[in-house]
């Protein structure tokens, strides 16, 4: 299976740019979008023309904000957030066979301390939920915009951002905790310590043109899927958002 994840920074905007047309040329089994910023009655008609059998969405109550959408070609049981009071449309959970696949737009903590606390509670509650699923012998795939770079190698200016939400020690420690539970950062598993590979660039100061970025979009898999992982990649050749799509190929 080929699975992708992309923070599109506005579903209507990206469809208006025809920036999704590349998916017509590729055999994709699943693509999870984050930050769709639209309710179902405002979805562009074009989204239903792409080669997917099923479309699922979880929109924020607040118009023009957050929201996730999944397009897939396999049957699954779909839930919205089971572990958090999700008025912001941040989670879609897909269950098929013995696998739980999450499409998540994790909170951003940069606005103020209140939002950072909100982000950290979301992180904590998600770990508790993952532990429950692991105890149920589920295999798990997590994709989405995690809004945190893990290591210094994952952003251009680590020292300058050491006190910035998205690279705070408490946020980075959460990824440590996730990996200590047995989860695998698929990009690093396949690509090792390759440098200057990012998935997000600011719109300011020609950051993407200069490749001044952060790797904050991930696929994590549970330990039982490690031997099934065949590839992990960042599609930084795809434009239309301030994020690039990320993906994996996995035998499931």
UniProtKB/TrEMBL annotation:
SUPFAM superfamilies: DNase I-like (SSF56219)
Swiss-Prot/TrEMBL cofactor(s): Mg(2+); Mn(2+)
Site (Interaction with DNA substrate): residue numbering on this chain: 243
Catalytic class of the enzyme: hydrolase
Domain of life: Bacteria
Keyword Hydrolase: yes
Site residues (Important for catalytic activity), renumbered to this chain: 217
Cofactor note: Probably binds two magnesium or manganese ions per subunit.
Domain spans labelled Endonuclease/exonuclease/phosphatase: 4-243
Keywords from the named record: Hydrolase, Magnesium, Manganese, Metal-binding
GO molecular function ontology, one term from the record: DNA-(apurinic or apyrimidinic site) endonuclease activity
GO biological process: base-excision repair
Active-site positions on this chain: 105, 145 (proton donor/acceptor), 243 (proton acceptor)
Residues that, per the record, bind Mg(2+): 7, 35, 145, 147, 242-243
EC number: 3.1.11.2
Alphabetical list of NCBIfam families matching this protein: exoDNase_III, xth
Name of this protein: Exodeoxyribonuclease III
């Amino acid at each position: 299976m080929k699975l992708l994840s992309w923070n599109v920074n506005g579903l209507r905007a990206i469809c208006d740019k025809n920036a999704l047309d590349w998916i017509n040329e590729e055999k994709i089994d699943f693509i999870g979008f984050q930050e769709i910023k639209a309710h179902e009655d405002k979805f562009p008609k074009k989204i239903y023309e792409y080669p997917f059998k099923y479309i699922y969405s979880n929109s924020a109550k607040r118009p023009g904000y957050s929201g996730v959408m999944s397009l897939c070609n396999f049957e699954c049981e779909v839930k919205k957030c089971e572990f958090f009071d999700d008025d912001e449309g941040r989670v879609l959970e897909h269950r098929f066979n013995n696998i739980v696949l999450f499409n998540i737009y994790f909170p951003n903590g940069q606005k103020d301390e209140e939002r950072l606390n909100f982000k950290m509670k979301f992180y904590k509650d998600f770990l508790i939920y993952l532990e429950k699923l692991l105890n149920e012998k589920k295999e798990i795939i997590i994709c989405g915009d995690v809004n945190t770079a893990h290591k210094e190698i994952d952003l251009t200016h680590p020292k300058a951002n050491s006190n910035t939400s998205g690279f705070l020690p408490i946020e980075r420690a959460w990824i440590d905790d996730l990996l200590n539970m047995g989860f695998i950062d698929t990009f690093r598993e396949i690509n090792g310590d390759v440098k200057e590979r990012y998935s997000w660039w600011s719109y300011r100061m020609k950051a993407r043109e200069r490749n001044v970025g952060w790797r904050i979009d991930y696929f994590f898999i549970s330990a039982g899927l490690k031997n099934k992982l065949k590839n992990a990649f960042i599609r930084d050749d795809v434009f239309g958002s301030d994020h690039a799509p990320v993906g994996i190929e996995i035998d499931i």
